[in-house]
Write a structure and sequence with these properties.
Elements (H helix, E strand, L loop, with lengths): L1 H25 L8 H42 L3 H17 L2 H9 L6 H24 L4 H21 L5 H11 L5 H16 L4 H4 L3 H19 L19 H33 L3 H41 L3 H15 L4 H13 L6 H25 L4 H14 L5 H14 L2 H18 L5 H5 L2 H37 L2 H7 L1
Helix pairs in contact: 1-2, 2-8, 2-11, 2-12, 2-14, 3-5, 3-11, 4-5, 5-10, 6-10, 7-10, 7-20, 8-14, 10-17, 11-12, 12-18, 13-15, 14-15, 14-17, 15-18, 15-20, 16-20, 17-20
Length: about 500
């Protein structure tokens, strides 16, 4: 119970800034929410805190150990085909069950068959999870692989634009963020840690990260391939975000729907783990009991979290976007920056990432420095996204130079920073980004450009949230490299300028 209270306290510190900003804005002439809207939002914030606390507890007790044991057990079996086959099926099935992906598929059901989209994205994740494992087994550098696949990605983007389906691009880039959701991230990250620890080698720290980075590329490529084949105009229907739609019987239906989605997603992971437990792992009963309790915490935490986001945060985000857009553009951009800095604090998977980074680097990259880098990166991404909505230009003007800068930095910083940075991009764009920030962007786009431009301008904000941490965290690594060189140079200068007498006395 003491640990749970600590987790809830941490969640309170994460959600409080978001709630405070909304309440403070409501006290100004800038925006106006009804009493019902503020009341539902604040109640949802309370449940959001509880959900994050339970999820964080469950991730520590179940999701992370399950991934760690699975990666280590499969690697120790020394059967590469078994490892590759299990990783492909795991990537496919877990992605198919990811709730955020189902929401994305629902946005384009008039243009693409939802099942086709989900399966295609799942295959993309499965293939790239396999490539990630092969990279780890054969100790291939992550930066070179990312550079190669992003070059393919940009070539596909040019093809999609050439066939007249450029509006598909923001959604394609968004898909890379939504498929690495709160259920899959702790499991896949721990899977990488377990495999890396079993393989060993001097690059074990770098090898522990990078799976999320690679798995984020597969969905983008898959959706772009589908976009290149779409014939006709792409339609998008803006949802009705009225807060009344989540109350009464609608709330019961929403809870039941969330229970089903989370149950399927967790059920697939548990089913895989049970099969591996019987055939390969054979863990003692005490550890299995702890994992079972952790799964229960994870299940109820995610149900509470996702329901709170859907009922209270999505409607407020949409209305906030429409009202801020009616003001001066500078206010919209500044609000985007501030909201971006605080919203990332409330993403549940971010806390899992930061803890694992601090553990793997033995405190070399602290949770505080990681969170600061992520907050600044996400804040910048939201500010830039608000500018794009206002001026109505293609997302390619951001993602091409952004990824080129981040890939270029990867050749000048330690490999572990590159792996952490690209993992952070997928983790930062979690359910609160798609459940609060994306509706805010859609609301701003509807107010400034009209509903017809939502797919082209409103979408893409998740992709921006996933991209900017790549640069900020690698800059953190670049600073560390520069500081080390400066310290070494100063130390060498002192040695060279010291006279013999000083050296003899020292010895």
């Amino acid at each position: 119970m003491t640990v749970l209270l600590k987790k809830i306290k941490e969640a309170l510190m994460s959600v409080l800034p978001v709630a405070a900003i909304v309440v403070l804005l409501n006290m100004t002439p800038l925006v106006h929410f009804t009493g019902l809207e503020i009341g539902v939002f604040l109640v949802s914030a309370v449940f959001l805190i509880l959900g994050i606390g339970l999820f964080s507890m469950g991730a520590d007790m179940a999701m992370t150990p399950m991934g760690d044991y699975t990666g280590a057990g499969l690697t120790k079996s020394k059967k590469l085909l078994l490892l590759v086959g299990v990783c492909f099926l795991m990537g496919l099935l877990i992605t198919v069950a990811e709730p955020d992906l189902t929401v994305l598929a629902g946005q384009v059901k008039d243009v693409l068959n939802g099942t086709l989209l989900i399966v295609a994205v799942g295959v993309g994740v499965g293939i790239f999870l396999v490539l990630s494992v092969i990279k780890m087994v054969f100790h291939k550098p992550l930066s070179s692989m990312l550079l190669y696949f992003y070059m393919i990605l940009f070539a596909l983007a040019a093809l999609v634009v050439a066939v007249g389906n450029g509006d598909f691009l923001p959604m394609a880039f968004d898909s890379g963020g939504v498929t690495t959701g709160p259920i899959t991230v702790p499991f896949i990250m721990a899977l990488g840690v377990g495999i890396a620890a079993s393989i060993g080698g001097k690059d074990v720290g770098e090898n522990s990260f990078g799976l999320i980075a690679m798995c984020s590329v597969g969905p983008i490529l898959a959706v772009m391939l589908l976009g290149a084949t779409v014939d006709g105009e792409i339609a998008y229907q803006v949802p009705d975000y009225a807060i009344e739609n989540g109350l009464g019987l609608a709330l019961v239906e929403k809870i039941l729907h969330t229970l089903k989605e989370v149950g399927i997603a967790l059920g697939l992971i548990v089913a895989f783990f049970v099969i591996l437990q019987i055939t390969v792992l054979k863990l003692p009963g005490k550890k299995l009991g702890q994992i079972a309790v952790g799964i229960a915490y994870t299940f109820f935490g995610l149900v509470i979290f996702l329901t709170a986001v859907s009922v209270g945060f999505m409607p407020i985000g949409y209305k906030l976007g429409t009202e801020l857009a009616a003001l001066h553009p500078a206010i919209l951009v500044a609000a985007g920056f501030i909201l971006g800095m605080v919203v990332v604090l409330a993403e549940p998977a971010v806390h899992v990432l930061n803890k694992q980074v601090e553990d793997i680097t033995s405190g070399g990259v602290s949770k505080k420095s990681m969170m600061l880098a992520l907050s600044i990166g996400v804040g910048i991404s939201l500010a830039l996204s608000m500018l794009r909505i206002y001026f109505d230009f293609s997302i390619l003007f951001y993602v091409i130079p952004g990824y080129l800068i981040s890939l270029g930095l990867s050749f000048f910083v330690p490999g572990i920073y590159t792996a952490i940075a690209f993992d952070s991009g997928g983790v930062a764009s979690g359910p609160l980004t798609s459940g609060f920030i994306l509706p805010l962007a859609i609301g701003a786009c509807c107010a400034l450009q009209g509903e017809g431009k939502v797919l082209a301008d409103g979408f893409g904000i998740v992709a921006m949230v996933a991209m900017t941490p790549l640069i900020t965290i690698q800059l953190l690594g670049f600073r560390a490299v520069v500081q080390k060189k400066v310290r070494d140079r100063i130390a060498m200068k002192r040695i060279l300028t010291a006279d013999d007498e000083q050296i003899i006395r020292f010895m």
